[in-house]
Amino acid sequence: MDNKYKSIPVLPSEITPKSLYLNRRDFLKAAGIVTGSALLAACAPKATGTPAPGAINESAYVGKTDELGSPLNSYEDITNYNNFYEFSTNKEAVAPLSANFKSHPWTVEVSGLVNNPKTYAIEDLLSKFPQEDRIYRLRCVEAWSMVIPWRGFPLASLLKEVEPTSNAKFVRFETLTDPEQFPAENNAFYPWPYHEGLRLDEAMNDLAILATGLYGEPLPPQDGAPIRLVVPWKYGFKSIKSIVKIELVDTQPTTFWKDIAANEYGFYANVNPDVPHPRWLQNSERRIGELARRPTLLFNGYAEQVAYLYEGMDLKLNY
Ligand code: MTE
After folding, report:
1. Which one of 78, 83, 150 would you pick to mutate in the ligand 1 pocket, going by the greatest count of ligand atoms within 8 A of its CB?
2. Cis peptide before 193 (omega within 30 of 0)
3. Partners of 148 in the β-ladder
4. Alpha-carbon Rg of the chain, whole angstroms?
5. Measured from the CA of 10, which atom of ligand 1 is nearest?
6. What is the 224 CA–ligand 1 centroid distance (Å)?
7. Distance CA 26, CA 291 (A)
8. How many whole angstroms from its chain centre is CA 174?
9. What is the pLDDT along the chain (319 residues), one digit of tens a residue?
10. Which residues contact 196 (CB under 8 A, 6 or more apart)?
11. How wide is the angle at C-alpha 226 spanned by C-alphas 218 and 92, nearest 5°?
12. Whose CA is nearest to atom 13 of ligand 1?
């Protein structure tokens, strides 16, 4: 691996304490003060992406929780605190920078070791596969988390359709390359396009979905429009956004963050409170919108559904 990549990635110091940020916004709201961006959104029709304030029917989700009883994060939280390095390393800058992102027309090429390779228009994926609502926890490797009501369909449904051959062992995913739309893709420091991978049996697990929406609305650009992976038992960086390519391969693919710093970001990236990140602990997390920290759960609380995938593996070595 090139040494130039060695020292960067997601620094905890880059994280604005969300509690402060939210408190500020809540304060402004309570005081009846509209922030600049909200004002702009109210005055101008949105080119694409994030529905205007009020367009989201959050009331339909009132009282909903994840299966552990935790309330959902608000649409506001989920769409204004984002990791999307193609736009910015500043989480609060992603939403405004992505406002005009064009996620239509869009195709996803599914290729490699499959009997039925096919390039799907996003409309085909939306009509062919019944869209389901799934409430999942998202746990970032930076030790913050949210509870998100996604809409999407199991990755397994798509994989079954293209029929992986017996040689297919892994699935590789790639984000759109388009430096005009993704300004940071001009920064040669990063190994663009963003790329990720799963073992085929992980990809076939029912919890792994391709998300096309949240809060019942199409995915906004900052959350990975028009289609992204969501693998809730792994750190958030596995959940690659704005996917254009899915390839079945026979060897373990490289991944974006592993290419940048292999000692910090492994291929598996399973949420595990007992395996600290080299620069910070992973045994607790800050749920966005809460002040006290929560204990982090093995496999992000999904052990019952996924632990079988790792039987006999040393989770410390395979981090
Ligand atoms: N996908 C792409 N293409 N680019 C990114 O920078 N960031 C990842 C992941 N997917 C990222 C990405 C990280 S680090 C996290 S934590 C999640 O997206 C964040 O998803 P969210 O912004 O919808 O909460």
Report:
1. 83
2. yes
3. 136
4. 19
5. 14
6. 8
7. 14
8. 13
9. 333 333 333 433 333 333 333 343 343 333 333 233 322 222 233 345 677 656 788 889 999 999 999 999 999 999 999 999 999 999 999 999 999 999 999 999 999 999 999 999 999 999 999 999 999 999 999 999 999 999 999 999 999 999 999 999 999 999 999 999 999 999 999 999 999 999 999 999 999 999 999 999 999 999 999 999 999 999 999 999 999 999 999 999 999 999 999 999 999 999 999 999 999 999 999 999 999 999 999 999 999 999 999 999 999 999 9
10. 172, 173, 229, 237, 238, 239, 240, 255, 256
11. 80
12. 237
In this structure, what token pair is assigned to residue 226?
């028009």
Q: Which of 72, 81, 239 gets mutated to test ligand 1 (max ligand atoms within 8 A of its CB)?
A: 239
Residues 6 or more apart from 103 whose CB is under 8 A from it? Answer: 48, 49, 122, 219, 221, 225, 226, 242
Ligand 1 atom nearest to 229, measured from its CA: 10
CB 205 within 8 A of CB 305: yes
How far does residue 89's CA lie from ligand 1's centre (Å)?
10
CATH number for the domain whose boundaries are 3-310: 3.90.420.10
The token pair at 68 is 């552990």
| 3-state secondary structure (DSSP) of residue 301 | helix
Extents of the domains making up the chain? 3-310
Q: Whose CA is nearest to atom 16 of ligand 1?
A: 236
Closest atom of ligand 1 to 242 CA is 3
Which residues have CB under 6 Å of ligand 1?
82-86, 138, 140, 175, 194, 223, 236-237, 239-242
